[in-house]
Amino acid sequence: MDKPLISCSVEEFLDMAVEKFAQLVSGDDEAPVKRRLVYGLAGLSQLLGCSISTAARIKKSGVLAPAIHQTGKIIVVDADMALEIMQLKTRKRK
Q: What global pTM score does this model have?
């Protein structure tokens, strides 16, 4: 229903609540995907199994740009996406 909650009657609100509860119980709504995140160059180096300087070089090259988000000094890496990109990168090399 696209009606604002404030303009709903009690009956309409209860109908929406019961409908939403039924969806949650039946599992129709997909659960949000839990992403594995690693932080900083140290986390990236642990993930890739390399030194911090090599992790910095890989980050600087832009290979993992879709998986890395940086705001100021804070570096957040989507671990699953980074491993997938590295796996595709090594496949292309062969």
A: 0.62
Please state the domain extents for the chain: 37-93
**Interval 15-41: pLDDT, tens:** 888 888 887 777 655 666 688 999 999
At 60-88, the pLDDT tens digits run: 999 999 999 999 999 999 999 999 999 98
Cα distance between residue 30 and residue 16, in whole Å: 19
Distance CA 17, CA 44 (A): 44
Q: Determine the Cα–Cα distance for residues 35 and 33; give it in Å rounded to an integer.
A: 6
Under CATH, to which class is 37-93 assigned?
mainly alpha
User: From the centroid of its chain, how far is CA 75?
Assistant: 14
The C-alpha atoms of residue 66 and residue 69 are separated, in whole angstroms, by 8
What distance in Å separates the CA atoms of residue 21 and residue 13, rounded to the nearest whole number? 12
Taking each helix axis as running N to C, give the angle between helix 79-93 and helix 40-48, from 0 to 180 degrees, rounded to the nearest 10: 50
